[in-house]
Design goal:
6 helices; 74% helix
Length: 126
C-alpha cells in the first residue's frame, strides 16, 4: 500500500471514528479547551488512529481536535433526513395502538396527511 493510500485510509478512519462518537468527542474537546487537560477517551482514540501518519503525538492530538470540530460542523449543517411514509405510518400506528386505535381507522385522507405531517416533523426533531 502506498503512503498516499495509507494516509487517505487513516484519515478517513479518524473522520469516521470522530463522527461515530461525536457527542462524546465534543464533550471531551470542550472540557479540554476549558481545563487544558485531555482525559483518556474518544478524542485520544481518534489521535491514536492518526498517530502512525503524524509527525508527533501533539500533532495527532491537534488533528483529532480538528476532526471532532469538523464532524460537529457537518452535523449542524447536514439536513435532517426526511422519513418515508412507511416509517412515518409505522410510528403513527405504534402511537395509535398504544392508545387503542390504528391508522386504518382514520379514513379521511386529510386527517391521515395531517397526522403524517405532525409525526414527520416530530421525527426530524429527534
Amino acid at each position: 500500500m502506498s503512503y498516499q493510500s495509507k494516509l487517505k485510509a487513516t484519515l478517513q478512519a479518524a473522520k469516521d471514528h470522530a463522527a461515530q462518537h461525536l457527542v462524546e468527542c465534543a464533550v471531551e474537546v470542550v472540557e479540554w479547551q476549558d481545563t487544558g487537560i485531555l482525559k483518556p477517551g474518544r478524542v485520544r482514540e481518534v489521535a491514536a488512529i492518526i498517530e502512525p501518519v503524524s509527525e508527533t503525538s501533539h500533532g495527532a492530538l491537534a488533528s483529532a481536535e480538528m476532526f471532532v470540530e469538523r464532524a460537529a460542523l457537518e452535523a449542524v449543517i447536514r439536513p435532517a433526513a426526511v422519513p418515508d411514509d412507511a416509517e412515518v405510518d409505522a410510528r403513527i400506528d405504534a402511537v395509535l395502538r398504544a392508545s387503542g386505535s390504528a391508522l386504518h381507522h382514520y379514513s379521511m385522507a386529510k386527517t391521515r396527511e395531517d397526522m403524517r405531517a405532525a409525526m414527520r416533523a416530530a421525527m426530524m426533531r429527534i
